[in-house]
Amino acid sequence: MTDLPASPDPAELAAPPKSRREQIHEVASRLFSERGYHATSMRDLAGELGMQGGSLYAHISGKEDLLMEIVDRAARQFDAALFTLREDPRPADAKLREAMERHIRVVADNMDSATVFFHEWKHLSPGAYARVTGWRDTIDHFYRDLLRQGIAEGHFRADLDVKMGANLILSAVNWAYTWYHPGGNLTPRDVAEGYAEMLLGGLRAPAAAEPGASP
Amino acid sequence: MTDLPASPDPAELAAPPKSRREQIHEVASRLFSERGYHATSMRDLAGELGMQGGSLYAHISGKEDLLMEIVDRAARQFDAALFTLREDPRPADAKLREAMERHIRVVADNMDSATVFFHEWKHLSPGAYARVTGWRDTIDHFYRDLLRQGIAEGHFRADLDVKMGANLILSAVNWAYTWYHPGGNLTPRDVAEGYAEMLLGGLRAPAAAEPGASP
DNA sequence: CCTACCGATCGGTAGG
DNA sequence: CCTACCGATCGGTAGG
């Protein structure tokens, strides 16, 4: 109820005005994720922004650069989310929970560009393509190192197959892009904690309980 | 070293001659998986088969029908692999291993069409689209039922979140299409057993071992 | 299975 | 940011 003079549009309070370039980037992420890169025309994209196809080129240099930047940003977000955990002093199981939560949060907060990241990177030029596989290797190694740390600490099973374990964890957190609904009743934290609980403790019942026994 | 008269081409011994239609289907799976549906032209497809673009239409009715059949077949393979397990009398943990092995085997034996199944189904017409989501629901329910059975039997933890557990399992087996290499040193059975072991028993060490302690 | 072609649409540019 | 346009390519067809 407080007056805020010289601020005519209340929408401008919540978010600073987005540059046209940023708007194009955002709509492109949505369309590329919904229809795929090649099935989205520059005229489709322009239409959603209320302009003509040719007008886009006043703001961007080309369709592929748009894709490259969407994929690049997504990759950097994954990397940034996990990077600060490398030097984290906590034990491996706590770090695994935290890493999975951050990883899923990146997916959840960027459903569109995460989908583009996973589906459309093969349409990039060889240079950008190589950069993406580099990011993915970095993330893979992060989880492998984490598992090795846990084994060395004695928190994880000594007979663990590190490669396979990292694959399993990556499957869980990446696949979220196919089913997670940001507006739903599950937060990224819920998912991460549920997954970590199952992964760390296992699905199997701790003791051989009698079937049908009541407490 | 035995003579086989009236069989001039030894390649015909291993595999019966594939119909042209089947060849088209096979090459289309590969191209759609490598480049995506919309980035593959009918002329690309025809070129790989040594014919002109227009000639394809003597064998098939259209591009989308090709996609629909590839996706349909993949869906049916997943369904068929798990269907016979519904009535299997084994305990849930054994059935889970078996289901994961069969599921991963379908992915591994059909890397191309599995990739198309996971990436290109959104380009189908609404009718075919609905059919695919139906298949996916069926598979999802299979794993949920399996988890419920395991809880009822007392083999699985009673506090298990069935939906999340099914999601975790599906993540593991489906994501294999992104990294599995059919010619490599890991069989689908290796992957399934490794995954099942980690999922059932958990990553955590059974007892609190001393870090650095030697046996 | 080929040649020749159809209308439609593509990414991108010139000039304003 | 628009109008008008470029050459290229698309899925598909006619007629043989």
Automatic annotation (TrEMBL), chains A, B:
Region (Disordered) location: 1-22
Positions of the HTH tetR-type domain: 18-78
Domain of life: Bacteria
Xref: InterPro entries: Homeodomain-like_sf, HTH-type_TetR-like_transc_reg, HTH_TetR, KstR2_TetR_C, Tet_transcr_reg_TetR-rel_C_sf
Span of the signal peptide: none
A single GO molecular function term of this UniProt record: DNA-binding transcription factor activity
DNA-binding region(s), residue ranges: 41-60
UniProt keyword annotations, A-Z: DNA-binding, Repressor, Transcription, Transcription regulation
Family annotation (PANTHER family): HTH-TYPE TRANSCRIPTIONAL REGULATOR RUTR, HTH-TYPE TRANSCRIPTIONAL REPRESSOR KSTR2
Protein name: AcrR family transcriptional regulator
Species this protein is from: Deinococcus budaensis
Upper classification of the organism: Bacteria, Thermotogati, Deinococcota, Deinococci, Deinococcales
